[in-house]
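Quick one: structure tokens for this chain, please?
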Amino acid sequence: MDNRAAGCVCVVDDEPKIRAVLRKTLERAGLTVNCFEGADDCLARLNTTQWDLLITDVRMPEKDGIELLMAVRRLQPWLPVLVVTGYGDVTMAVKALKAGAADFLEKPLEKDSFLETVRTLLACNTAERVLLDHALTRMEMKVLYHILDGKNNREIADVLNRSPRTVEVHRRHLMRKAGANNVVELLRQAAKLHLFDPDASVAGAHHVTDGRVETPVALPIPPSPPVQAVEYR
């Protein structure tokens, strides 16, 4: 990988030697790496650090990798999570993938295969996340979630204790930031970020988070430039 494919990767593993090996391998591939011993340490930084990929072990003390995966999916459903474990089996793989893992690998990791998986996940994530210069505010994010629940401006105003006019202003701002000309395009953008189930009806859509967003969140706009695949040296 060269710097054109560079990104920021978070590694969570309770074994210091494993963290050291993964950091060295990923940094040699041109990536920025943040390592954490446990899930709670990772989650404490999640709202203040932008990662392009999260790699987590499964068996860890206190909170395991699947619990971390589920927490990340609630807080930042657009962040791809690669689950790795030395105790992998079909049941665990299915559980991880059903919980929203982007991929699942067994230890010991083969370097070239591991880096190829990382490269693929980063490329897909880059292609879907062309970030805007301005992120959504907390209020705009709340309005977005209520739109995903099928509420109109007056219903959103009642829930948020705001005037319909104020809601309309927030709605117009988030539509502009998302590059959407109408609600259908906005829903497509939200679906790309896995904020709701696109197969469900709008009125009954179930988004992953509960709307209690503590930090601004940026939405992507298409089209994205192709990401050039590069080889690890």
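The radius of gyration is 19 Å.
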